[in-house]
## 1
Amino acid sequence: MNGAMPKLPIHGAGLGYRRELMNELDSRVPDVIRFFEIAPENWIDMGGALGRRFRAFAEQHRFVCHGLSLSLGGPAPLDEMLLRKIRGFLDEFKIPLYTEHLSYCSDDGHLYDLLPIPMTEEAVKYVAARIRRTQDILERRIAIENASLYVNAPIAEMDEAAFVRAVLEEADCDLHLDVNNVYVNSVNHGFDARAYIAAMPAGRVVYLHMAGHYCEAGDFIIDSHGADVIDPVWELLDYTYRSIGVRPTLLERDFNIPPLDMLVKEVVRIDALQRKYLQASATRLAHG
């Protein structure tokens, strides 16, 4: 493994918290689910019965926040009012981790998609300054997520892995590594997914995502979060744990959401892989 293990605010395997699952989760949370993830934009101003249900649940379970609309690479000014609301939300529910996409999604209005940032030195400095400002307002470190990309960046002075590393270094922030996004981009843009994982600074990786996707064509896939995780992505997660170490890992499922018991099977598979590498690490330590 390359790099030191970061101090992690959460551990184990998690699941995205969705309204479709609330009835089942209110009745029973399977032991294998160690934490949940939400988009803060969807819950900050939620009132009424739904808001009360969420608050009651959040008081008893660990959560992570994954933002949708900050548009770190966008041309419009940062939404500092939103960031202050997010800071209050994180504080209120003692949420230890906030992550956002390394992309942009607004330009004089929300574009409802995650678009690629030009992979240039100028863009590195621009995005890193916005991340530092975000961290100042939130009064905590954040992690940025490698985004799924369907078109090449409009200008590229470096490849995606080098761009991500440069932003992390310039901003002094952490990495939310989406394993499925690495796989999606490796197919769509023809690079080695394992080489990309190996190029990431392990000491900054604090959190992982797993998800399913949709095959538009043999060499073009869409990060849909609406299907089961496929075997090549499971193999890439195995390689990730072997390469950089075990990290808290969340199963994303945003569409075509099956019953909880079906989702839990995939969470169990994440947990089993984590245990495999944690036990191997413990054995090595025990034998010097």
Note: The chain has one domain: 13-286.
## 2
Amino acid sequence: MEDNSVIDIASINQKIEKESAFVDLLVMEINKVIVGQKHMVERLLIGLLGQGHILLEGVPGLAKTLAINTLSKAVQGSFSRIQFTPDLLPADVVGTLIFNMKENDFTIKKGPIFANFVLADEINRAPAKVQSALLEAMQEKQVTIGDETFILDKPFLVMATMNPVEQEGTYPLPEAQVDRFMLKTVIDYPKLDEEQLIVRANLKGSFEQVNPVVSVEQIISAQKAVREVYMDEKIEKYILDIIFATRYPEKYGLEELKPLISFGASPRGSINLATAAKCYAFIKRRGYVIPEDVRAVILDVLRHRIGITYEAEAENVTSEDIINKIVNEIEVP
């Protein structure tokens, strides 16, 4: 029986190695334009391969728009950008019915949501109605205009950005809506030598041409292959222990976290953590998940799924501190 499973993993490994050959090509192509920001590029790929969506938080000017635009060019996908503002309407996102005088009938005008890569810029600037229209499309992968329902193109990746600096005129995303994002990635400033390269490239004004290196079909095939990445039962148990420790910390010898957590991660957290770990293994061209894969993606998957109490805020404890404590406590398989 054991020999069989060894052969099985070996064949999965071979298959994944073949399927993931395009990853290096894609990253090289993106790096022509994006300097540094390895973490963000990796997270974009995880979102794309895991059929999830990404919430990016970072100050303006950190190449968030440029990154997703570059990715869409390298993947031969369609790209659209929605600038969220307080006067935006749901119809501006999903589309609307327009009266056609010639035919004396209504025709459907599709909105910018109908693209493979959608950038929702400053999502917290738009009112709840607009946010929920976008989030419904993200969750259901379909849009209803009038009485017609349209299935969105595959792959479909929404990258929403949030500016953490300004709070005026913003509508914070409710926890239930933030939970729809597979990953929440916080982007930091580039390193000094990286920024020097960015400044040079901008002053020259000559950016390298991004060429399409991967087809949409290859991405769809890779999304299916990710599901075949082997995950041992011990790793599953490890993921569930981490998630349950966010809900019942006292059962894992972490009583001190109980008053700091207002609510733990939902089952969506466990699903996304397992999926993201598989995607990370795929990007590293491996056909099986190891505990390091889980640890590599855990902050991005869980930082927006754990509610912290006023007590935690008073003590300057963030959800990331809580996750790190849990990860250090839970036994690694």
Note: The domain at 228-329 is CATH 1.10.8.80 (Helicase, Ruva Protein; domain 3).
## 3
Amino acid sequence: MRINGLRAEAARKYKVTNRSKHSLPVAPNRLEQDFSAAKPDQRRVSDITYIWTKEGWLYLAVVLELYSRRVIGWAIGERMTAAFGL
């Protein structure tokens, strides 16, 4: 490895991003895994993920309309707070 200019890189520590054991209210699962839609603008879903960049973590929230499967809204933020929501 030294001859070829290679070196080992230590694995990054796992970062916990959510706490499932809390007393905060949780929204009901109204779709219950049924992601079909007969007409436009009946059902929408959203999700949040995080992306590593050279400047640090960014959080991405996306809203999809299920009939067309198109993105109808999104937001990017440095912190995942209640104000981050769409």
Note: The CA atoms of residues 1 and 7 lie 6 Å apart.
## 4
Amino acid sequence: MLVVGVASRDLVADDPRGWRLGGAATYCSLTAARLGLRVGCVVGVDRSASTADELDLLEAAGVDLRRVELERGPVFENIEVDGHRRQRWLSKSDLIPLAALPDEWKTARARLIVPVAGELGDEWAWAVTGGAGGAECFVGVGWQGMIREFAADGWVERVPPSRSQLLDAASLIVASLDDIEGATNLTRLRELAPRASIVLTAGAGGGVALGEGVVRRYHAIPAVDLIDATGAGDVFLAALTAAWLFTGQIATPAALRFAAAAASCSVEGAGLAAVPTRAQVAARLR
């Protein structure tokens, strides 16, 4: 599996650095590796993030990590407002160049493109439309970084989703309902990504999967103890992708339950250390 995106730094009070490493690319990569997959990750990092201890977790799990050093990487402050997460930004991100993608990874069967701060330019559409050695190619997209903007007042704001080459190529798209503008209806979302299964997550409220003429609701699996929900949606996306690699099917009821179990485990600790193993997910399903 190929994963591409930038590592973010999220401000926290319980870490001596004042921040904790995050970003969809780190969560997706570690999840996939701990579920037993072979993973290569192209990750953009600023100077502080490049030496973060959390990256050691990825490599210890077997992730082949290719760091792309950036002058600027995203820095966020996550704030709970009326039960929903809002973000303030302290730093934006430079672009990750397409040249950072190793030639030997261009035939990966599964590719997760997970921007969080506009770090993947239009040229990255090529990376997901290229061949996969004659095998079926799966393209998963984390929609969050494509449907928000860094407003001048310091808040991260939602923007209406729009059509793109990346969405045209997608097999699976995952986003939180908090990231989708309330006026955007399900029919409009299907029009933007006609080939993809779209899953909209709602935390403890479960979520909904949109397929070809099918709207399937799924239930969340309760966590034993909710500590930190950051990254749960990324864990969910990576687990759904793993389910496709295991079964060849996208967003089936069994796959959604598997992903919900992985996300449930991930919120029971802080940061990347809480990303579950395959054995932990199996235990949660039982």
Note: The two ends are 27 Å apart (CA to CA).
